[in-house]
């Protein structure tokens, strides 16, 4: 497995994204091998960033361009395997499935995969919703977020055991439940560093199960929110993974 960063929370802490090279160098110094998404607004920029990352011993898994069509083209052109599923419909389930399948067909024509990020508050939140999605969208893989899934009371081990071949990458984080009665998911608790939650999430057991079924792809640590300098949080999570054998 390769251990990298999904850096959404870093952008929240910083107030934006200002210097991609500075970010990957900081992450490399604390033991990470890459950043999930390379963001670019031209093909020249995508190629330049990819080359500089490679020179510095870092990598990425997918490209996020100014349009979904360009994201697909640049991801395929740079030899990366997937783009995030991104469709307009987020409320009507049947339309959502149809659009996702159309996007997956477009990705297949480009020689890559479309991969859905399961997320609380979305059409694919609970275990039942995730399993139904996998049945209805058979070409689509998963950006499997164990934090969102555990917070939605899903069984990560069972999903990996049953659908391991559908997992493209894994997002790992923990969940601290603070206000169970809150109606909005993002008011019930917050995501936190590995081993700091209170939902009984066993990251080592989950990664061990993934390794057992032959998963050897990217594992991305993601802190959706930081209460201190992000590199301090991310260093602690990397040390947690080292202790777990990863």
Textual characterization of the structure:
- The chain has one domain: TIM Barrel, CATH 3.20.20.
- 45% of the residues lie in helices and 19% in strands.
- It is built from 11 helices and 10 strands.
- It has helices at 8-14, 20-29, 43-55, 68-77, 93-110, 127-136, 146-151, 156-163, 185-188, 203-212, 230-243; strands at residues 2-5, 34-39, 59-64, 82-84, 113-117, 141-145, 167-172, 174-177, 189-192, 218-221.
- The protein has a 6-stranded parallel sheet.
- The chain is globular.
- The mean pLDDT is 95.
The main sheet orders its strands as 1-10-7-6-5-4
Might you state the CATH topology name? TIM Barrel
What is the percent of helical residues?
A: 40-55%
Q: Helical region count?
A: 11
What is the CATH architecture descriptor?
Answer: Alpha-Beta Barrel
- Note the overall shape: globular
Q: Which strand-content bin applies to the residues? A: 15-25%
Overall residue-averaged pLDDT value: 95
Q: Structural class of the secondary structure composition?
A: alpha/beta
From the alpha carbons, calculate the radius of gyration and give it in angstroms: 17 Å
Count of structural domains: 1
Low-confidence segments: none
- Count the E strands: 10
The main sheet comes to: 6 strands, parallel
Question: What is the chain-wise order of helices and strands?
Answer: EHHEHEHEHEHEHHEEHEHEH
Q: Can you tell me the CATH class?
A: Alpha Beta
Measured distance between first and last alpha carbons: 8 Å
Q: CATH superfamily assignment?
A: Divalent-metal-dependent TIM barrel enzymes
């Amino acid at each position: 497995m390769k251990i990298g960063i999904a850096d959404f929370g870093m952008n929240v802490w910083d107030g934006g994204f200002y210097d991609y090279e500075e970010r990957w160098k900081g992450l490399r110094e604390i033991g990470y091998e890459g950043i999930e998404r390379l963001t670019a607004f031209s093909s020249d920029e995508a190629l330049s960033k990819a080359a500089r990352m490679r020179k510095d011993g870092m990598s990425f898994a997918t490209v996020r361009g100014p349009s979904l069509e360009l994201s697909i083209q640049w991801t395929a052109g740079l030899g990366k395997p997937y783009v995030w599923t991104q469709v307009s419909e987020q409320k009507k389930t049947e339309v959502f499935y149809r659009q996702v399948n159309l996007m997956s067909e477009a990705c297949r024509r480009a020689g890559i995969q479309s991969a859905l990020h399961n997320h609380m508050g979305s059409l694919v939140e609970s275990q039942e919703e995730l399993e139904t999605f996998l049945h209805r969208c058979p070409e689509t893989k998963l950006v499997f977020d164990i934090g969102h899934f555990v917070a939605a009371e899903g069984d990560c081990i069972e999903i990996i055991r049953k659908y391991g071949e559908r997992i493209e990458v894994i997002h790992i984080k923990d969940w601290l439940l603070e206000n169970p009665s809150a109606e909005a998911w993002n008011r019930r608790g917050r995501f936190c560093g590995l081993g700091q939650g209170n939902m009984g999430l066993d990251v080592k057991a989950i990664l061990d199960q993934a390794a057992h079924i032959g998963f050897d792809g990217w594992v991305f640590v993601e802190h959706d929110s930081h209460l201190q300098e992000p590199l301090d949080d991310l260093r602690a999570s990397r040390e947690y993974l080292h202790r777990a054998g990863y």
